[in-house]
Design goal:
single chain, about 160 residues, mainly alpha, 7 helices
């Protein structure tokens, strides 16, 4: 139908970028640039994975009209901050929302919020005090959120 399976390619691309960033032994300015770049990738990863997971589920229902509608709706979904993520998930299934909410720790929520706050500041040309270690930690939590969500949708 309209979607691809959740992509491991984007995850491996980000993992490889982290490897390059941490292996680079350069000045702090370049390290900070890498952290900002990775922040954009990490937040985009969350958005893409949530969208692809939902589209895969909808496609499995074998209704082309529904798939088309959901794909159009998801294209407008940006900034998957915690509240927007829970709202979107709840629009599909309140049980999914409830289960995701139970799995999200304060650390998961803080990682999502911090990554998006940094990304939005970066996008508006503001200075961001973000380190490679911080964005790697956010990424680890965000990957867990993606896995939680994939598991919830497959179980449903």
């Amino acid at each position: 139908m309209l979607s691809a399976q959740p992509s491991e390619h984007s995850q491996s691309r980000i993992d490889e970028a982290f490897e390059r960033a941490f292996s680079f032994d350069g000045d702090d300015v370049v390290q900070a640039d890498y952290a900002r770049y990775l922040c954009v990738l990490v937040t985009g990863f969350l958005e893409q994975q949530v969208q692809q997971t939902i589209l895969s589920y909808v496609d499995s229902q074998d209704d082309r009209r529904l798939s088309s509608y959901i794909a159009a709706r998801l294209r407008r979904s940006r900034n998957m901050r915690r509240s927007q993520l829970l709202e979107l998930v709840g629009e599909f299934d309140l049980a999914w929302r409830s289960e995701l909410l139970q799995r999200l720790t304060d650390a998961h929520s803080a990682a999502i919020e911090s990554a998006y706050a940094s990304r939005n500041s970066i996008a508006h040309g503001e200075d961001v005090a973000l380190t490679l270690s911080q964005i790697r930690e956010y990424y680890q939590y965000i990957r867990e959120v993606v896995e939680f969500f994939r598991h919830i949708v497959r179980v449903a």
